[in-house]
Each structure stands twice: as structure tokens, then as C-alpha cells.
Design a protein that fits this description.
Pfam families: MFS_1. This protein has about 400 residues and is an all-alpha fold. It is about 80% helix and about 0% strand. The chain folds into 2 domains: about 190 residues, MFS general substrate transporter like domains (Growth Hormone, Chain: A), CATH 1.20.1250.20; about 200 residues, MFS general substrate transporter like domains (Growth Hormone, Chain: A).
């Protein structure tokens, strides 16, 4: 299949590009909302212990690891639009299983949800790589990736409201219906599936994207960097609220506001870094700057206390959110640039295998460190080391590229 160098539709067809981008954004937002629906609604579901949420998310992202590496083969066979539609339908089935409210069906639902979530990004990367001129890759991929925090934000705002005034079952069923509607409205874009082979073989397909990434030094370094970044992202999203309220002694309402600032800054950061990468013509340099700011803000966060003023708390949290949550679009744009011709979906799927491994492993490692140190503040300070390691990898990978 073609990649960014074929530029379909042409750069002048801005309307077609806008429609395509809006479609991928909607797909990403709904897919993210589906993965977060159970954690968000679990307090309203009878008999669901808190530990079940962690197990559910672990299974979701395990499924996403599998879905991301086989997703490229499915994209090659069906095309990126049909793959995205099938992924949304799979998540709709998972939400339907959760509506039944059976302990025996919860983990299969989590696995199906993850298997549906995994192919979304490889498919959308193929779509955007074919429809976006190279000089606008950064902002296009960053705009699409705002669907992740946007989906979480909308799910967090709407699903509890529905659960309060209707029921949690209505919330899950309603989201499944939205997934179906978005899938149907994506049908006119199947013109982008031109070139799909129609042949699907998964016997060795799961290995090919991983091998392809590991065999390319720059792609290999980007995959490991994404593992480190994703570990930081989920640690911040998973533990910042607990740290603010429990360790820093900040009131629950005020802590919630600071947490919201960090999440909102994640959306703004994705757009800012994408625009900056296009402006200076280097995604790698932007990611290096993000590493520096993330390290500094993580260390500063570790020193939070009730004596800090609200403005200072929000300012540091905004930088933390903009970096820890805002790196994804620039990363995916760089992958699209580095990918061999016709391999955007495959390379993206292989790299995301490592990204999701960071999602699975990062938060537990952070929690164990905090438990051992008896301080979430110390854990945030230690977290500042992770982007420094990523910075070193980006720097030496860049030097290696210049020597060739």
C-alpha cells in the first residue's frame, strides 16, 4: 500500500484531508472511550472490587499489544478504513458483554476491547500517511492523537451522568451504539482502501512488524523511546490524583482541578508539539525538548505540598501533562517518516507493541517503587530519570543517522 510519498488526496484537496482527519479523530476518541468505559463506570456497577479495574486494564492493553502487531496484516488485507470499522465493531461487542454483568465475561470483554483497540492506530497512521503532505505530518498526527485524551475526557464527563440518571447499562449500551454509528459513517472513506489485497494470513504476521522495527536502528530506538514515554504517561495519569490528595495534602476538589489541568494540557501539548515539529522540520528535536521538560516537571511534581500556591501547582502540572501525555502525535509522525515505502501500518504496529508494553509495565513499577519508598513524591522524582534515558537514546540515534 502507498505511504506518505504518494500523498492521496493531493495537498491542495484540503477539504478531503479535513474530512479524513475528522474521521480518524472520531474513531480514535470512540475507541479510547470504549477502553475506559468499565473503569469509569465500575463504581456504579454492583459487586465490582477496585482491584478488578487494574486487572481489566492490564488485559485490555495485553490485547492491544496483540492487536497492534497483527493489525498491519489486517490493514494490508482489508484496507485501513475497513480495519477501523471492524475494530470499532469488536469493541461494541465487548461493551455488549459488559452490559450482561457477568464476572465470567468481564475478562473476555477486556481482551476483545484490547484486540479492537490495537489496530486503530496502525490503520489511522496508514490513512493519514496517504492523505497528508510530509510537511504537515506532525500537526496531522497530533490532531488525530488528541482523540485519546478527548475520548477519555468525554467518557469521564458523560458516562457517569448517564449512569446517575439512567443506569450504567444504558451508558455502556449507548457507547456501543456510538461505535456502530461512527463505523457506519466511515464507509464513504473506503476509497482509501484501494490496494487492499484481500488476502489475510496471520500465521507469521504477528512477528513481521516486530522484526521490521528491531532490524531498523532508528525505528528500534523510537520503539524503546515510546516504551519509556508510555510508562511515564500512564504513571502520571494513574497516580497523580492519589499523590495530590494523599501525600501532598491537597483537598479532593482542588486536586481534581489540578488533575484536569494536566489532562487538558495533554491535549494542548499534542497540538503544540505537532505544530512545532512541522515548523522546525524535526520531530526528533521536539521529542528531545519534551524529554527535558518532562524530567524537570516530574522532579518538581515530586516536591508538591499543601504549601504550594494553586497557580504554581497548576503550572507545573500543565507542563507535566503537556509532556507526559502530549508526545504521541509527534512520535507517530516520526514513525511515518522513517517507515520504508508501503510499511507505515506495519512499522506503527510493531512499534506500538513496545509502547503498550510500557503501558502494562510502567504503572505497576511506579506503584511498587512508591510502596517501597513509602512516598509517591519520591516515585515522581525517580520518574524524572526515565525521560533522561529517552533523551540519551534520541541523541545518539540522531548522531548515528547524521554519520550515514
Amino acid at each position: 500500500m502507498d505511504d506518505a510519498r504518494t500523498a492521496i488526496p493531493r495537498p491542495g484537496q484540503w477539504h478531503a484531508q479535513a474530512v479524513t482527519l475528522a474521521c480518524t479523530l472520531a474513531i480514535q476518541a470512540v475507541a479510547t472511550a470504549a477502553t475506559l468505559a468499565f473503569p469509569i463506570l465500575s463504581p456504579a456497577m454492583p459487586g465490582v472490587p477496585p482491584a478488578a479495574v487494574g486487572v481489566f486494564l492490564a488485559v485490555v492493553y495485553f490485547g492491544a499489544m496483540i492487536g497492534s502487531v497483527v493489525g498491519s496484516a489486517i490493514v494490508t488485507s482489508l484496507g485501513p478504513i475497513r480495519t477501523s470499522q471492524a475494530a470499532l465493531l469488536l469493541q461494541g461487542v465487548a461493551l455488549g458483554l459488559l452490559v450482561i454483568d457477568s464476572d465470567a465475561l468481564r475478562l473476555p470483554a477486556a481482551l476483545l476491547c484490547g484486540l479492537g483497540y490495537g489496530p486503530i492506530t496502525p490503520a489511522s497512521s496508514q490513512i493519514l500517511a496517504r492523505s497528508t503532505p510530509p510537511e504537515r505530518m506532525g500537526i496531522a498526527f497530533s490532531l488525530k492523537q488528541t482523540g485519546v485524551p478527548l475520548g477519555g475526557l468525554l467518557a469521564g464527563a458523560i458516562l457517569p451522568f448517564i449512569a446517575t440518571f439512567c443506569s450504567w447499562r444504558v451508558g455502556l449500551a449507548g457507547l456501543a451504539l456510538v461505535a456502530l454509528i461512527v463505523s457506519m459513517f466511515s464507509t464513504p472513506l473506503r476509497v482509501l482502501d484501494a490496494g487492499a489485497t484481500g488476502r489475510l494470513s496471520l500465521s507469521s504476521a504477528w512477528r513481521r512488524p516486530i522484526v521490521e522495527v528491531l532490524a531498523h536502528p532508528q525505528l528500534r530506538s523510537m520503539a524503546i523511546v515510546s516504551l519509556l514515554f508510555s510508562a511515564c504517561q500512564l504513571s502520571v495519569s494513574g497516580y497523580l490524583m492519589t499523590f495530590l490528595h494523599r501525600d501532598a495534602g491537597i483537598g479532593l476538589a482542588q486536586a481534581g482541578m489540578i488533575y484536569a489541568v494536566a489532562q487538558g494540557a495533554g491535549i494542548g501539548g499534542r497540538l503544540l508539539w505537532g505544530h512545532l515539529a512541522d515548523r522546525i522540520g524535526s520531530s526528533r528535536k521536539v521529542l528531545m525538548a519534551v524529554c527535558v521538560l518532562l524530567a524537570m516537571s516530574a522532579v518538581a511534581t515530586g516536591s508538591f505540598s499543601g504549601q504550594w500556591g494553586i497557580v504554581a501547582l497548576c503550572a507545573v502540572s500543565a507542563v507535566l501533562g503537556a509532556t507526559a501525555i502530549g508526545w504521541n502525535g509527534v512520535f507517530l509522525g516520526e514513525l511515518a517518516r522513517l517507515a520504508p515505502k508501503g510499511s507505515v501500518a506495519s512499522v506503527t504496529g510493531g512499534a506500538l507493541f513496545f509502547t503498550y508494553f510500557g503501558v502494562v509495565a510502567g504503572p505497576p513499577a511506579f506503584g511498587l517503587f512508591a510502596q517501597h519508598a513509602e512516598s509517591f513524591g519520591a516515585a515522581f522524582v525517580a520518574l524524572g530519570i526515565v525521560p533522561v534515558v529517552a533523551l540519551a537514546m534520541l541523541y545518539f540515534a540522531g548522531r548515528g543517522r547524521r554519520k550515514k
